Amino acid sequence: MIGRPDGIVLGTGHNALVLQAYLCRAGLSVLSVDRAEIPGGGLATVENPRHPGFLHNTHSFFHRAITAMPWYVDLELERHGASYIEPELNVAMICPDGRVLKWWRDLDRTLESVAAISSRDAKVLAAWIERFEPIVDGLLAPEASSPPLPPELRRERLERTAEGRLLLEVSASSPLEFVRSEFEDPAVRAGLLFFNGLREVDLRLPGFGHSVPALLAGRHKAQMCVGGSARLAEALVADMSNTGERCCAVSRSRGSWSSGIAPRDSLWRMAGGSRGSILLSPDSILSKSCWS
Asked: Reduced to 3 states, what is the DSSP secondary structure of residue 34?
């Protein structure tokens, strides 16, 4: 029997699952609601009906630096079955004339690939990577795992150091403006914007010019979840189950919370505060007693 939840999370994408897993570890009972039949959001992997055994990620495929994320380590997701590979040849762009711009895990090989197209741009890229490595390690990485600061306070702190001032200067431009101002060869420009665009950054938006050098200066590249992206969602759900989380599904129906039936078109409910883990069919309807 599950008591009323302490909190409600809308959606069961990876961000929602990470949040819910942390809250469950803190001893809270949390309910999440989603239209989908299984949790994960974009972490979706389906079997090809024409080729049994072939799994296809229908949305999220590459997960950049996931294994270095604090939440990946904190939630012990590898213990729950998540496993990643980071391909040596990480990303490639084939040009119309047959040339190939390759982004390797090894920086020297990446610079060799750029130099084969433009030696001048390869030298510029190497210089920017060298300048941004301390910025990524000392500023951007800690920021990404900390509560955001008010813009004025963040600027004031960044202006105290040379690295911070450089970050502010480069960030003022858009990725497109940065690439156009620093690199000459059209293929190199296109490749850098392509690699950066994979992160769903608006290439025209001021404030993100730093994303290009930061991307290449990062120590981790694109990674793939073994067995499909859905395995990451399964590992997150497994962590919640391990802490006493109960996973339930309800059918599409219009009811009230008091009746134990989700309002509107909600399908998935997950609630903590119970021993063990139970997974019900999406066609089932939770009884009132489940939430009493």
From this structure: strand
